[in-house]
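Below sits my pick:
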Amino acid sequence: MLESQTHHIPILLEPISHFLVEGIQNLPESAPSGVILDCTLGGGGHSANILSKLGRRAKHRIIGIDRDPDAIVRDQVRFAEEISLGLIEVVHASFSQALEAVGDRPIYGLLADLGISSDQIDSQTRGFSFRYPAPLDMRMNTKAGISLQDYLGDVSESELSDVIWKYGEERLSRKIARRLIDLRSRGILPKNTLELGDAVAASFPPAMRHKGIHPATRTFQALRIFINQELNELELLIRDVFPKVAPGGRLAILSFHSLEDRQVKETFRVRENYELPFKKAIQASDEEVEANSRSRSAKLRLAIKK
């Protein structure tokens, strides 16, 4: 059952909102009406804060896209009034479809929060967490792509091991893959995320099962990234959408994985294209981490289009 309200806490809310809104405020009066493109609308926290700062008479709009249909349903309810006033457009789309939503309007600000939302993690039906016996799905867009259940039912041991290592940096990737394929060969492949988490944990030596993070954490991260082709989506965003940001336009990219952050960092290093207000990534303060532990691994990179 879909909850009507989000419980996702937006990370680095003020630095992101201030940076993007400042860019809008610095535009000349003669600038044509344009947009701030929120590529990962999610719970809508960042966009809501930006709207509150822009005010209801701003001539520039927000376009919020997300490929999660559940998020879109919640945001259509949350922003019903703002949608009716033409302040925000809520669109079910992936990064590769973002420019279709923008049309010929200039992009003055671009935001992408590349993390998974608390609404997705905490859902007992979506399959992102090993805390619940949820179906093995893991798709952000439940209307497209292959589910985790189907993938595990067909993948080879070598490919599975490579995926777990590449996207999760899990040192026991081969052992985990071997165990899962063995369970499949015996007709007892896990049927839900709780069983999958237990199967992955059983691949670890007993002394390692209760140290630090849950032993299935990196494997679940790797499978989620692969099932949703998250790095490929980021490549499309960088290749197709970044170049469409207007000169002087601002980009704010929030990542949670070293592979994602590396792509963004290398892109922004091209100094003939971008000016960097900060040399290093911005991270959550100790106070924010204490209030929201999911902000601990976040890295925010800001850039201004030349």
